[in-house]
Known about the structure:
about 230 residues, alpha/beta, Rossmann fold, Arc Repressor Mutant, subunit A, five-stranded parallel sheet, 8 helices
Amino acid sequence: xxxxxxxxxxxxxxxxxxxxxxxxxxxxxxxxxxxxxxxxxxxxxxxxxxxxxxxxxxxxxxxxxxxxxxxxxxxxxxxxxxxxxxxxxxxxxxxxxxxxxxxxxxxxxxxxxxxxxxxxxxxxxxxxxxxxxxxxxxxxxxxxxxxxxxxxxxxxxxxxxxxxxxxxxxxxxxxxxxxxxxxxxxxxxxxxxxxxxxxxxxxxxxxxxxxxxxxxxxxxxxxxxxxxx
Length: 229
């Protein structure tokens, strides 16, 4: 069956351009230019991924994402014209799977959509605790294993990894990671998170040098990409 993408974009030329690129990539697509039409359309039509602009006539993308998450887990990619907006959106935790900033390459959008769909499929097919026995987390034992080898993690590193692992593919800001790791409101800098991430990456790379699991999102934070089966 074809993959269906819903493009919610009020710039008609941009929506048409994106539709052309998705068609070339063998996607079926539908464009909506007004936020008020989205919810009813999604409830009555098959869709596999939604490309959702923030600035729309009618309901804006932020409100739509929140409403969509009340009844569906369809992957959502948010589009914004301001890179600073991404950090605000992440702070709201509205439930989007990826964020992309204008101007962008339509090819990049299609590639990112395919990546989001792959991650979504992996999450749906696997029981979060293990992915083909490559990566597992045992909360009771405070133990993380990768490719059947145990990682020697500190308590802080374990909490950091656990947060990333619980929702693979989700982008976390440094503030969100710090708040999860330190419950006593202590003051720590962004460099503290970066240092822990660097150590985690090294421990994972020591086991498998060719696979990068923790990805940096420029200007925003980090996310964990599970190994593909």
